[in-house]
Specification:
Layout (H helix, E strand, L loop, with lengths): L4 E2 L22 E6 L1 H19 L4 E7 L3 H17 L6 E12 L2 E11 L9 E9 L3 H11 L5 E10 L11 E6 L4 E2 L15 E4 L1 H14 L1
Parallel strand pairs: 1-8, 3-4, 3-6, 6-7, 7-8
Antiparallel strand pairs: 2-10, 4-5, 9-10
Helix pairs in contact: 1-2
The chain binds inosinic acid and magnesium ion.
């Protein structure tokens, strides 16, 4: 069973004013839920757990774009640091896949592969899928079934966040950073219509105003 930090439904998070957020998002955010430093500290530990379990084999780290790119890059930096500083090290290569399941703030039923490398290159490999957030679990279940057709040797999934939601399929990743309430979160590469990826902390939007503003912005540009 994966260990993780559970963020409760009554979590208040932190006042925005306590941290630095980009000026262009100040009006749209309500609270900081997971500060950047805490994301990094948890990621460092996930890297250690992954190397402990998968070390000794060559790992292909598969980044689920776009939301996974920050977590992917930071997680791999920590794995690299372990490789540089331990007697045992694990060769690491990278691969990317682009999937889309979200429209505005709603998860849709169809999960589409809209880019990335050929999955057939993963045949016989030890694959670590790196994802930002699991909500219904559909994206990950679709990707895992696509991947199984290519017969990888081993597949593990690490997701920074897992949402506690009645819409969930029951799917749980092998490694997870935090379990979060059924809120729409942005920042650290999690987006709302492509915005907020350039925000370091994981935050909650001040709902309606922010959504209207960035929805209009997106439609105009
Ligand atoms: P699932 O297929 O419902 O598990 O959805 C997973 C995908 O939806 C993730 O890879 C994200 O890209 C996106 N997603 C789910 N919840 C959020 C959120 O709170 N903020 C931003 N994106 C989200
Ligand atoms: Mg994603």
């Amino acid at each position: 069973m994966a260990t993780y930090h559970q963020i409760p439904d009554d979590e208040k998070g932190y006042e925005l004013d306590l941290f630095c957020v980009p000026k262009h998002y100040e009006e749209d955010l309500d609270r900081v839920i997971i500060p950047h430093g805490l994301i990094m500290d948890r990621t460092e530990r996930l890297a250690r757990d992954i190397v402990r379990d998968m070390g000794g084999h060559h790992i292909v780290a598969l980044c689920v774009l776009k939301g996974g790119y920050k977590f992917f890059s930071d997680l791999l930096d920590y794995i690299k640091a372990l490789n540089q500083n331990c007697d045992k090290s694990v060769p690491l290569t990278v691969d990317f896949i682009r999937l889309k399941s979200y429209c505005n703030d709603q998860s849709t039923n169809s999960v589409k592969v809209i880019g990335g490398d050929e999955l057939s290159t993963l045949t016989g490999k030890n694959v670590l899928i790196v994802e930002d957030i699991v909500e219904t679990g559909r994206t990950m279940e679709t990707l895992l079934s696509l991947l199984s057709e290519c017969n990888p040797k081993m597949v593990k999934v690490v997701s920074l966040l897992v949402k506690r939601t009645p819409r969930g399929s029951g799917y749980r990743p092998d490694y997870m950073g935090f379990e979060v309430p059924d809120w729409f979160l942005v920042g650290y590469a999690l987006d709302y219509n492509e915005y907020f990826r350039d925000l370091g902390h994981i935050c909650i939007l001040n709902e309606k105003e922010a959504m209207d503003r960035w929805m209009n912005h997106w439609m105009k540009h």
